[in-house]
Write a structure and sequence with these properties.
mainly alpha
Length: 120
């Protein structure tokens, strides 16, 4: 939104730090089940690391759905909405300086001067 409103005040340093802390906390919470339920099995010629969910496959399925929504779909949706708003605002707005008749007069005078220079 800084492109649309460049002079509007941004988030304070304290709010920014809290947001960063919340993002890191969410990342740790989302990664915790994988770390907690991971197991290592040593086989001949290789070692396998896998996630052994304690209950049914439903827990694993729900975890992956939640992670997909929070990590992929939510950011994609937020970026899509913000870019759409930014596009409509920038493409739908008028060019700065086109608001008064004086500008149009100056523009025509420049065009006359430029066309007279080319004709010489």
């Amino acid at each position: 939104m800084a492109i649309i409103h460049p002079l509007k005040p941004r988030l304070s340093a304290a709010v920014t730090k809290v947001l960063i802390l919340c993002i890191w906390a969410l990342a740790v919470v989302l990664a915790f089940p994988l770390c907690f339920y991971s197991s290592i099995r040593v086989l001949p010629n290789r070692t396998i690391c896998y996630v052994a969910w304690p209950r049914s496959d439903y827990d694993s399925f729900m975890y992956h759905i939640i992670v997909m929504v929070l990590v992929y779909m939510l950011p994609l949706f937020v970026m899509g909405v913000t870019y759409t708003i930014m596009g409509f605002t920038l493409w739908g707005g008028e060019i700065p300086g086109n608001c008064c008749d004086n500008y149009h007069g100056q523009l025509q005078a420049k065009r006359k001067t430029n066309s007279e220079c080319r004709n010489r």
